[in-house]
Amino acid sequence: MKYPVSFRTTLKISRYLFRALALMLWTLGALLTAFYIFNVLRERETQVRHDFNTSYQQAEWYVRHSLDVMRELKFIAENHLNTSVDSAIQSGSEQHTGTFLQPQFSKFYPSSDCDYMRNTLHNSLGSFSYFLNYWRDNFATAARLNRVFFIGGENQCLANFDLVSTAADQNRMMKVLRERISIYRNGTEEERKNNLSWIAPAVQPGVGFYYMITPVYVTDKVTALLGIEQSIRIEDLMTAGSLPMTVTLVDQNNRRVLTSERGEAKFSADDLPDDPTWFGYISGYSRLVMKKNLPSSSLSVVYTVATSEMIERLKMLIVNAILLNLISGIIVVTFARLFERRMFLPAEDNAYRLEEQEQFNRKIVASAPVGICILRTSDGTNILSNELAHNYLTLLTQEDRLRLTEMICGQQVNFVDVLTGSNTNLQISFVHSRYRNENVAICVLVDVSARVKMEQSLHEIAKEAEQASESKSMFLATVSHELRTPLYGIIGNLDLLKTKALPAGAESLVTAMNNSSSLLLKIISDILDFSKIESEQLKIEPREFSPREVIAHITANYLAMVVKKRLTLWCFINSDVPVLMEGDPMRLQQVISNLLNNAIKFTHTGGIILQVYVKGDYLTFCVRDSGVGISAKELTRLFDPFVQVGSGVQRNFQGTGLGLAICEKLMNMMDGDIEVDSEPDMGSQFVVRIPLYNSHVMKLEPCDGLQGKQCWLQLRNETLATYLIRLLREHGMQVQHYEGEAVADDILITDHEFQSPQSLRAVIRFDGRHNDAPREVASGRWVCATTTPNELPLLLGRIYRVEVAVPQGTPAALAKVGESVNNDDILILVVDDHPINRMLLSDQLGSLGYRVKTAQDGVDALNVISRNEIDIVLTDVNMPNMDGYRLTQRLRELGQTFPVIGVTANALAEEKQRCIEAGMDNCLSKPVTMETLQQVLFSYAGRVRKSRKSV
């Protein structure tokens, strides 16, 4: 799809719109800042207006208070102007004693006549002066009343009563009075009924005199004009506010009368409106003004605050708001530019790249070696496809198209195989996606006809390989059976010869033949085991076993070989080695035996050390020798099958080169591992680890009889010394190295010929040539095998005649071959179709002390069993007429419960499993040695004897 030009234009327009959005955001922030500043100013205006109103209330109270004083004086004057002075004096003499306030008469004009007022109103003024005198003493100071005066109506004479000494200058007052009286008298009749008030400034700034005149009526006739003079201070007309304010009193023409300003006036009369009540800015918003008319007067009070004072208090707030707006603008612009660089500009670049990529993808689809198409999921319509996909789709039948559409719509699977009408195998795989605002499925169509044919060929090849593998297994089983049968005759008869008295020189020949036979058996076993491992037929059979018994059995088998080469085999088993654990003891024994066998073969001087200990969650076996060693280059090929590393003396030894390869694979099957560390001419060390599954460790309690006993060590082997010190101290004994000290009634342990003191209780010497249980060669002189230092506590218990607890499996409990054992109470039936095998088994069992009956097949065995009380049956599994499997099944059907042990030359694992499933108790692989017979029959004979006792 080719993107239209409008798409790129839209991206560019979007970028410009984003810039406009950023500018709008900043503008909105600026508007919010301006609104905030305006709101703060409005709040400050409201506060200032509140301060103005509070101050106005103070001024209004002053004027109303003056008006109340005037009203009270007028009431007193109208009621007492006609009262005689004598009666007034007489009535007041009882209440007041003092000097009466006398009026002062002054001519209002030069032509004025004061005699009339002195004579006519003398008594009335005298009566009024008494009350003024009372007012002077009680109320004049509080009311700031300076003087009270009367102006005659006709004679134009002034009667003045000075109440305080701070009254205005008389001449100045007369001048003002004349001007105001003229205005008053020239006014209308209605205006003359009202009070006349004005303010005369004093010399001191902010201080003046407040005058108020009112007509006094006697018998509804204006008798005189009553006037008062009060001191007024401009500070009394305002209260303390948050801002410094200016108070100004103006007249009805807005002319300044009295002000609190200092110096030049901040506004003129033209700046003030004519409205009696007004609040706002004047002089170009330089001052905030509130004007209000004072009640019952022609005066107005004007409160002003400089706008600069208001802004000065809000300067930091306004500056911070502006700075915040500027910073936010910078942030918005920076973010807008960053967003534009990170989003819009790459999006525009992507638009160009997507257009190119669309064209490129179309060319890829067109040139793809497979069919690619895009199908609409709703109806399966082909939206886009290359030529190859178009050709494939035309090969599909209508049913195939419908099935494909259903799968795409239902989303059940993501691939489908289709066989077209032209026998073409198509594999169609698809994934769901979106294309041009539609739900689509991207389908890939591949012609897999060649692959199908190849798979069919591979299937046939695999089938042939499986048949070949089965043939190989059958061949190995047959070869194993055919080789083991005669080999059993050889090895078994050689074991019997070793128990007989032989002529001189014959014993060495028998030993040589036995060694060769054993080597041949090991080669056959290794080849068979490796083949079973490769074909995954060899199985690990875990069961509970004692690792100590396994080690004891291995060392007992190899000790004679070690002594023969004049080497020393040391075996150290730590006390933390479990007495029981789960695993395959036979395969473990096979691995350790192989490592010991190699160590003995490649070691000519010194010895071999076998250590068994627990490390973490693993039981570890370490086999260390002082042999020829292995170079680092050859270590990498050490575990390869059919490879024998080294040269020279190593090549002189026979073998298949499978031993270590089998060991490694067996350890992997047992969830363990094996590692090697070697250096030429310094020896080798092999470490085997197997996991401790369901292990049980016996916690040894120190023996009271050995507590505090003294043992002296005179040892050359440091490993043995370290091991014995730890072992003996675990049993509570004291251990020290012997340096020639005088000792008495103690134990001395050594590993070499040593002239020991005679005062010792016992001397124990570890001898590598001793292959038996501890033996007392002389009084207090004991010899122990180097393979059983862990049995030392038992010997010490025997010497001190105390009972010592040791872990299970420590003492060697196996009877020696050739040792006289009384087993003549056990009758064993040997069933084998081969006469040599029957004879050999009969001789071996007879050497072990058992009574024997023989049978040549299963039918013959049933006849023998019917006539004799058979205790144990040893039967071959592959016989004519009736083999060992059917014989066992028949015996179990007849209710016979005695042990049945199979003997077979087939060493495959499934053979043993088949024997167990048939009802046998055990299965032995040929060749069967006398030692194996002794171990297996020992347990079953004991079970037969127990069953007899229970009956």
From TrEMBL:
Keywords in alphabetical order: ATP-binding, Cell inner membrane, Cell membrane, Kinase, Membrane, Nucleotide-binding, Phosphoprotein, Transferase, Transmembrane, Transmembrane helix, Two-component regulatory system
Residues the record lists as Phosphohistidine modifications: H481
Domain Histidine kinase residue range list: 478-694
Record-annotated Response regulatory domain positions: 827-941
Reactions catalysed: ATP + protein L-histidine = ADP + protein N-phospho-L-histidine
Enzyme Commission number: 2.7.13.3
Cellular location(s): Cell inner membrane
Cellular component annotations (GO), alphabetically ordered: plasma membrane
Pfam families found in the cross-reference section: HATPase_c (PF02518), HisKA (PF00512), RcsC (PF09456), Response_reg (PF00072)
Main location class: membrane
InterPro entries: CheY-like_superfamily, HATPase_C_sf, HATPase_dom, His_kinase_dom, HisK_dim/P_dom, HisK_dim/P_sf, RcsC, RcsC_C_sf
Database matches in Gene3D superfamilies: 1.10.287.130, 3.40.50.10970, 3.40.50.2300, Histidine kinase-like ATPase, C-terminal domain (3.30.565.10)
HAMAP family listed in its UniProt record: RcsC (MF_00979)
Known partners and oligomeric status: Interacts with RcsD.
Physiological role: Component of the Rcs signaling system, which controls transcription of numerous genes. RcsC functions as a membrane-associated protein kinase that phosphorylates RcsD in response to environmental signals. The phosphoryl group is then transferred to the response regulator RcsB.
Similarity remark: Belongs to the RcsC family.
NCBIfam families, per database record: PRK10841.1
Protein name: Sensor histidine kinase RcsC
Natural source organism: Erwinia tasmaniensis (strain DSM 17950 / CFBP 7177 / CIP 109463 / NCPPB 4357 / Et1/99)
Gene from which this protein is expressed: rcsC
